[in-house]
Amino acid sequence: MLPVGEDLGNIPREVFDSLYRLGIPGTRVLRWEKEWDNDKHFFPINTYSPLSMTCVSTHDSETLALWWRDYPEEAKEYCHFRGWSYIEDLPKEYRLGILQDAHNSSSLFHINLFQEYLALFPELVHEDPEVERINRPGFVLPSNWTYRFRQNLESILAHKGLREIFCHLIPNNGNNHVL
Question: What CA–CA distances, in Å, run from 98 to 22, 33, 56, 93, 177?
Answer without folding.
Answer: 30, 13, 7, 9, 23
